[in-house]
């Protein structure tokens, strides 16, 4: 099951890390050092959060730098600044659904 929240709701990172102690939290950023496909999202019972920033500025820099090991990237051409936010979200969520054998889809 996937749920969407506005960043304004998640401004304090502790709202995820303290309430969802077993959750996997990933930040999707152009400067992430690890590819989003290198992770296991296959457990449908695992709470997974993907945080996406604005198309123009990304996530707040201090927030992302404090979680550098959680920053993932989508490979893209060096000739573009970034992907459209909705496209980036679709790419990452589709990979998670694919790994879960599209359990929530018919």
TrEMBL record:
Pfam families: SpoU_methylase (PF00588). The keyword tRNA processing applies. The keyword S-adenosyl-L-methionine applies. Keywords: Cytoplasm, Methyltransferase, S-adenosyl-L-methionine, Transferase, tRNA processing. GO terms for biological process: methylation; tRNA processing. Residues 12-94 form the tRNA/rRNA methyltransferase SpoU type domain. GO terms for molecular function: methyltransferase activity. This is TrmH family RNA methyltransferase. It comes from Snodgrassella alvi.
């Amino acid at each position: 099951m996937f749920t969407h929240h506005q960043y304004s709701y998640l401004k304090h990172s502790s709202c995820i890390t303290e309430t969802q102690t077993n959750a996997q939290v990933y930040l999707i950023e152009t400067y992430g050092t690890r590819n989003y496909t290198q992770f296991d999202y296959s457990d449908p019972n695992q709470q997974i959060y993907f945080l996406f920033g604005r198309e123009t500025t990304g996530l707040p820099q201090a927030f992302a730098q404090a979680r550098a090991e959680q920053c993932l990237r989508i490979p893209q051409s060096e000739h573009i600044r970034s992907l459209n936010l909705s496209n980036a979200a679709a790419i990452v969520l589709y990979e998670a659904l694919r790994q879960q054998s599209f359990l929530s889809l018919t």
